[in-house]
Amino acid sequence: METKMVVEKADLTAFEGDSGGYYIWSNAKTPLLSELKLAAGKLLLHPLGFALPHYADSNKIGFVLEGTFTS
What we know:
Number of strands: 3
Number of helices: 1
Low-confidence stretches: none
Oligomer: single chain
Strand content: 25-35%
Strand order of the largest sheet: 1-2-3
Order of helices and strands: EEHE
Helix content: under 10%
Distance between the termini: 47 Å
Structural class: mainly beta
Shape: globular
Mean pLDDT: 83
Radius of gyration: 14 Å
């Protein structure tokens, strides 16, 4: 099986608002996700943006690519 590993932009917008947006890679455009039974999304928060806590019935891994946190 040959695997195509290319970085592509997310192709679906789940939500977009003043505080940021949530973008999704669809299984139709990224078949490797289907094969591996994975999903991929990107949460983009603007300065002072806030994401509400939520429940999910699956495990998630998050990475902070840039920015700061103050408490």
